[in-house]
Amino acid sequence: MQQIGIAIAGFGTVGQGVYKHLLQNRALLQQRLGIRFAVHGIAVRNLRRKRLVKVPRALLTRDWKSLVEDPRVSIVVELFGGCNEARRLILAALRKGKSVVTANKALLAEHGEEIFEVTARYRAKIYFEASVAGGVPIIKALREGLIVNRFQMIYGILNGTCNYILSKMSRDGTSFAKALAAAQRDGYAEANPALDIDGIDAGHKVAILASLSNGFLMPFSKVHIEGIRSITPLDIRFARLLGYEIKLLGIIRAENGIEARVHPVLIPRSHILAAVDGVYNAIVVRGDVVGDAMFYGRGAGADATASAVIADISEAGLDRLYSTEMRPLLGPRGRGAAKIKSIDDVVSRYYLRLSVVDRPGVLAGIASVLARAHIGISSVIQPEGHEGKVVPLILMIHDAKYRDMRRALQQIVKLPTIRGRPMLVRVESFDVAPFDGGQDLRPGGDVS
Ligand code: HSE
């Protein structure tokens, strides 16, 4: 039996989950991998903190550098989070030729260039399955199971907290603030939930997925991000009336350039993602060979995330024992190798909610601005109100470039009958890609 030494840096929820399951399933891992993993140290910030798992006191240290220096340690598991100490630790471990396993999406998305450059220079390896969608093995699916595919589209629910909030608002009709408070009470959202609800966490994940699927490093600053703070129960009610649910989605689309974006979306209630409720994550991958494939599961939590981290530890262990070279990876490599599309050039349909004074000519004014911009209206709802009173007016808009829609909206809000802020949400159906029958193998039609 081969033994491989590991060190864990960071012993919060996920770190404790990793330690617990490494121990509990030790025999299973040995049987499946032929490797015995030995934890030689755990770096913590506070030695005295009460923890849910029992751990020998001698394993704990506040000095992560001693773990990186320890010659018995081959694999360093970074679970500090954040971009400061975690970055220093990872770079130090890679420079020592250790394999690094991390769940740190912010670090990869914002400092990926430096991390991957050092990884390559020192011929080290870094594994980051847990950085996207917790326990859902989407990274390995892209890098291994779907290796032959060009990824036309990857889209999905990448933030469990936002999905919990939107699901609750849709199911119970609660306000955003109440749904957020419930998410915090149930331990899903952070005390400072801005990373989740402003779409940044999902944006980090989109940057990683876009890099992997397109073979070049997608700068985080190029991901267009909108959060869910301004979604109201009224929007959810109108969306449902029109046959849609509102979800916060990450979307990567390769079509005349690469789109990488996170924002609320109206998706048809018949779409499989509309049924993904609560804190779950789900990702649809559209490959040119496989067609559509969907991955669903827990995107956070100690156990689910530990499952992904231990998968990486296992892969790192096997790589250290049996492979001397980098296995061919699907990116990220190279810079700016493809054109990244500006959000202004992205075409979609829209849901537009305006607050208007119910007065003759209101609709005509709005329609004429849209007509001048060559933007079509596909449907209009205005609940019956009283003349002269403020009422919501919902317009469903045909495909339009965001630049045109944005400019038209700037003019619409200047009309004298418009009150308050407009609400603009993109509408996507993600129609199933027509499978080109000509590509299928047919008798006598061998590819030569
Ligand atoms: N806070 C994230 C979520 C989990 O709510 O999905 C970690 O990325």
Chart the SSEs and their pairings:
Layout: E1 2-9, H1 13-24, H2 26-33, E2 35-43, E3 60-61, H3 64-69, E4 73-78, H4 85-95, E5 99-102, H5 105-121, E6 125-127, H6 138-145, E7 151-157, H7 160-172, H8 176-185, H9 194-197, H10 200-214, E8 224-225, H11 233-241, E9 244-254, E10 258-268, E11 280-287, E12 291-298, H12 302-322, E13 347-357, H13 362-372, E14 377-381, E15 390-401, H14 402-412, E16 418-427
Parallel strand pairs: 1-2, 1-4, 2-3, 4-5, 5-6, 8-10, 10-16
Antiparallel strand pairs: 7-9, 7-11, 9-10, 11-12, 13-15, 13-16, 14-15
Helix pairs in contact: 1-12, 4-5, 5-10, 7-8, 13-14
Overview of the structural elements:
The chain folds into 3 domains: 2-134 and 302-337, Rossmann fold (3-Layer(aba) Sandwich), CATH 3.40.50.720; 149-230 and 242-298, Dihydrodipicolinate Reductase, domain 2; 343-427, Alpha-Beta Plaits, CATH 3.30.70. It is built from 14 helices and 16 strands. It has helices spanning 13-24, 26-33, 64-69, 85-95, 105-121, 138-145, 160-172, 176-185, 194-197, 200-214, 233-241, 302-322, 362-372, 402-412; strands at residues 2-9, 35-43, 60-61, 73-78, 99-102, 125-127, 151-157, 224-225, 244-254, 258-268, 280-287, 291-298, 347-357, 377-381, 390-401, 418-427. The chain is elongated, with a radius of gyration of 25 Å. The two termini are 46 Å apart. The structure holds L-homoserine (HSE). L-homoserine (HSE) binds at residues 159-161, 196, 201, 299-300.
